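[09:14] KT: can someone run the structure on this one? pasting the chain below
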Amino acid sequence: MSASEDRPGGRTSALRALSTAVLDRDGTVLRWSRGAAELLDRSSEEVCGRPVRDLLEDVPCEAREDTRLPGGIPETGETRLRHRSGRTIDVTFRVTPLEAASELVVVAVPTRRLTDLEQGMSFLESLFSQDRIAVSIHDTDLRIVRANLASEVFGVRPEPSPDRLRNVMSAQDAEGVEASLREVLETGVPLVGKHQRMRSPQGAWQRRSLSLSAFRLEDATGSPNGAAAVFTDSTEQDRSRRHVELLHRAAKRIGASLDVLQTAQDVLDALVPALGDVGWVELADAVFDGEEPPKLFGAGRWHLRRAAVAADPGPWPAALLQPLASCPPLPDGLIMRDLQRGRTVTGGLAEYPMGHVPELAPLFVPAHGHSFVASPLFARGLVLGVVAIWRAEQPDPFDQAEADLLEEIATRAALAVDNARRYTHEHHAAVALQQRLLPRATTDTPATETAGLYLPAGGGAEISGDWFDVVPLPSLRTALVVGDVVGRGLHATAMMGRLRTAVRTLADLEIDPDELLTHLDDLVRQLEDEAPPGHRDTIGGTCLYAVYDPVTRCCTLASAGHPPPVLVHPDGTTEVLELSPGPPLGVGGMPFEATTVELEPGSVLALYTDGLIERGDHDPARGLRRLVNALESFCRPDRPLDDLGRDLLADTSEAPPDDDIALLLARTRAIAPENTASWEFPTDPSEVATARETASRQLTAWGLDELAFTTELVVSELVTNAIRYAGGPVGLRLIRESVLVCEVSDPSSTQPRLRRARTTDEGGRGLFLVAQLTSRWGSRYGRRGKTIWTEQPLDTTADGLTELSQSALS
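[09:31] RB: done, structure tokens below
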């Protein structure tokens, strides 16, 4: 007896494991097969003619008498054979007598091989009897030789004996499977767990997901003779995986923006086409303004607006895909009531209430739509809106698992929408406060025509407290201010308001720009010391302060860490003014330096904050070049400044700015030389009369005789005080514009004080008279001495002036 064992890496069929021998009735070996010789490593010459018992390690177990053959040999059993090497081999044997002969044929197989064969056959039989595993064996032409294409796997009951896969799945899917099997046949590389889509051959309405594994079959020589394929149903696993992926994608997308519209669009981008073919989000009108929506009950107008729409490519009507300005009145029904109570609803076209109203159907039902699922955006007991998804091209209706999935996503989306709503509310409040703290957008004075524009940060960024201001100064001068504070939100707005108030207060003192910034820097450092420790880093900022004098046509500027202004000359050429900026406000330790430039009438001065030039790439140098080029393109002498400002902002507003933008444009004017007159007088009391007469003659020349009496009194008092207390020389200047300005300059730095003289005093009434006879008065200091100025309106009648003068004198 003999058996063949596997060689390392080789393949041996069960049949090759059989060994045979022929015995006579006495148990002597007559013939010895090659397989037997290989099994025991004993040739036929060594074995033939010898008793078979010489090869046995032990005698086969005793069998019943009726199962024994002649010679006492058992008909079947197990025994151990001796190998030439001395080891033993367990075999299972069967003895068959030959007819009309006294010879016995013994067939043996190693017991291990027989066990493997029995287990393999049992495994195959069990595999082909499974309902949830489909098996198919194919020949080299990929025809089905044997198969168990279970209905639970394929979803349909196949033909009794299908010969091709296209009999149980669509031709397109069958071609894909056969291509995989062909590759396995050619390469011998097994295929494991390939995802395979399977649609019914009767139509694509029924779709399933299968996991395909395949391996090559070989004959005894190792040549391929077919392929085996194993299919398992992975529809539910794939569905669960898709749902988890959708949840992950939605969690990543939703809530990334604090913009209500963007949040609504993010919700749909996550759901379409993953869950349906077309969908939309409708939000309550109040949500867009940052307010809480009212509670909804029953039918009627819900005060909703379609905020976002998404659709898989398809022939959708335009009315369906356009955001609605407002939602029309809606019918009542169980679905509407469930949505108002915060419940997710699903159903078909028959259950959808808007589908039965002709005027509403085009707005709420896509073409061929057959199934819908809708979930309210329900947060804190309020319905902020509704998200609705429809299926038209996708054949399967929505089931409860998908409705639960949408409800979970809608719950997350509702919190994101509510956060965006609350941010919108706070942002609107901060912007409103900021804009209320800013001055008028446009001014028109004898010195300048100005236009200021403010663009708050968008895209979820808080406002950062940028501001501009135009401060009218005495003697027809104008101060131009632009600044940017550190930090964002209401704290920045409050800081901006304090700094703007401080600048206006310091501007009224008529100090030079560099000195004003020094005082402002001191104030910021004081505020920093007073602030709580956690807020000290949010106090500070930059500022640019400029004073323009229309008489001298000079502009004096000083910067505290602020970007330089851009000057557009009347001929259209541009120039970035070179300043020597000091440190930002609150740093301290460094002086501020003023720069004076002469401006031609009709020049445009552009003051701005860094948000205008640090857009997108955050490169201020490149942004400044863009601003210069835009000014060259848009700035024309006849162009209104507010139009120019809007063009400048629109030119760089491809996306919502992440920083506030404040822009102040000023077109300069000049006082004509014939409208000014100036003189200088020595320190002689007799020169007071000369000054009065000189001023009177000038007013007569200007046609302002009605102001002569009052002006003489003002000049007399101011010149007298200058000669008496300050010394000389004394300067006198008159300026005629919208008001009559009278200035008296002297070399003293003594501050004049207004006081009310007692009835027994012989003097001290001069400045009191000046204050009574003019609309306003004040003093400012220069590099050498001071200047006292007064203003008188030009539209006051002579009778009125006389009465005013007499009243003041009395």
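[09:33] KT: thanks! The longest strand covers residues 207-218.
[09:34] RB: yep, looked fine to me
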